[in-house]
Amino acid sequence: MNKRKLSFWEIWNMSFGFLGIQFGFALQGGFMSRIFQTLGASKDDIPFLWIAAPLTGLLVQPIIGYLSDRTWSPRWGRRRPYFLIGAVFSSLALFFAPHSPALWVAVGFLWILDASINISMEPFRALVADKLPKSQRSYGFVVQTLIIGIGTWVASNLPWLVSKLGVSDAAELGVVPMSVKVAFAIGAFVFLTSILYTVFTTSEYPPEDMEEFEKEKAKKNQFIPDILNNIGSMPATMKKLGVVQFFSWFAFFTLWSMANPALTEHVFNAPAPIETNYNLEIPDQLNAYNTANTAFQKASNLVGSYMGIYGLSSMVFALLLVLYTSRRRINRKYVHMVSLILGGLGFLIMKYIPSHEYLALSFILIGFAWGSILSMPYAMLSSSVNPKKMGVIMGIFNMFIVIPQIVAAIGGVVFISNLLGEETINAMTVAGISLILGGLANFLITNKKAITYEIENE
């Protein structure tokens, strides 16, 4: 099929739902650990409490990719039904998560939230490859990254902004502050409305050969064999990108799960108070606990706000790439390599900064890595796979995202960090080393079409 080139605004409309998806991811990544700590989780337990997220992605994304490849509705298309289903459940989970009365309930909401976000997100990646000619795919994934950057920055600042507007950061023992509850409610609204915008402003191409499509769709009990067959026959470029992805996503899982305890403790000197260290029946001790808890909540707002900078930085990075790739080719391999190494340096300097203001520099550098992670691997991959299987291939590729997160969650982060010492900030050092290794792993990529797409090959 000869696909026409789309305008910037057509690509923007088809990608706009990612604003809501990133609201969900940013609130989850920036504040779920804070919710866990507020409900009594110890910092060493936090990575394991996050295991629901990558486990869900491991199961959901290949399934959704497979199903969306075999879905077609003249009215709703192929990918859009999954956007909408995921958005409804994500919005409900976002709204209710900060109201969790107990730690296990919050973990359950994280599971539902991540599963629902994955239902919406995976088809978005496939939609870019469905709709755009190969010469525009780098451009399309970079526009997605631009929107993701906007969502990350705004959502990460929501609790801080809501607090500045007068909503309280103080709360009773084991209760999430109202500022976080309001921020998550706003996120739920944005998630649903942005997905609806894409659903109603974007059309999809029908299958090229409808007769063949219906035959494939009619085949029964082919899911597991097809998934296994696609895993066994994955292109060499996909395997090599998997190595890059492993180190990249190990680093970012470490950021999402451990940044709040690490930075509130090391940079802001306001760790989460431990209930057993206080006799809450004594008024002075109760006041001391409440003071420490409020300081922790305010420091957590600032950690979230600083984390938003990497969204802003990735947005600027993506904007520059949009302007460049709209007219010229880029070497995706070297762009990705340099970006990951810069992000790794951003993590490494966190341990040595003299005051919290310098966190802005760390997260600017991390934003370069994030912007590249969300665009370059997918652009390289989409030039190396069968377009008829784009949904299931993107789902399988996302296994290279969730497997490193599972490794990190079941003890990888805590074990490696403890090799460097007992300070929680060592987790950020581990993230930095991992990201630099991911950057160097780009030397494995040798497929010329993946590295730089030749327009004359269209």
Gist of the model:
With 458 residues, the protein is mostly helical.
Structural class: mainly alpha
Q: Give the helix proportion (percent range).
A: over 70%
SS element count, helices: 19
| Poorly predicted runs of 5 or more residues | 454-458
N to C succession of SSEs: HHHHHHHHHHHHHHHHHHH
Mean pLDDT: 84
Beta-strand portion reads: under 5%
Please tell me the total number of domains: 1
Describe the secondary structure blueprint for this structure.
Layout lengths: L7 H8 L1 H22 L7 H4 L2 H18 L10 H17 L6 H29 L5 H28 L13 H24 L8 H9 L4 H10 L3 H31 L16 H43 L6 H17 L10 H15 L2 H7 L7 H8 L1 H22 L5 H15 L7 H4 L7
What features would you highlight for this structure?
single chain, about 450 residues, mainly alpha
Structure in words:
72% of the residues lie in helices and 0% in strands. The protein is mainly α. It has one domain: MFS general substrate transporter like domains (Growth Hormone, Chain: A). The longest helix has 43 residues. The protein is globular and about 75 Å long. The C terminus is likely disordered.
